[in-house]
Amino acid sequence: MLVVDPSPLCYPAHTKPAMKPAPLPQDLHIHTTWSDTDSSIVPEQTIELIAALGHARICGISDHFEMIVDQFDDYRAAVAAQGLLIGTEVNGHEWVPLALDADCDYRIFHIWSAPRCKSHLTVQQKETLRPYIRRRDEVA
């Protein structure tokens, strides 16, 4: 009688079953083709592809607000259709008022050189119970 070890380690390299890594706890900083002038985005980086990957237990799309502001309702519908959290990345203090009015689950703020605006934003985020994601180098 032949006994076969079913362990994937005993398979030849070309026949090993594909192993999918455990999903991340969360990934909320994902850009797609909706951020169409972001040079790091490739044409395949669609909302549908991100949803199909299933790489995180909590997953959200956060395309650049200034790139989607004029079509935000369509963007929100496209993200929601895939069952993902609806977010946006806000680059610069001039976009903050509009971004705060946008109907989404979360926002990621990049405010590079406006300390007055940053401190105001922190207070406003706490008052509205909306998440505020701090930079790693920011003092709590």
TrEMBL record:
Gene3D superfamilies for this protein: Metal-dependent hydrolases
Pfam families: PHP (PF02811)
Listed GO MF terms: catalytic activity
Descriptive protein name: PHP domain-containing protein
Domain PHP positions: 27-91
Domain of life: Bacteria
UniProt signal peptide: none
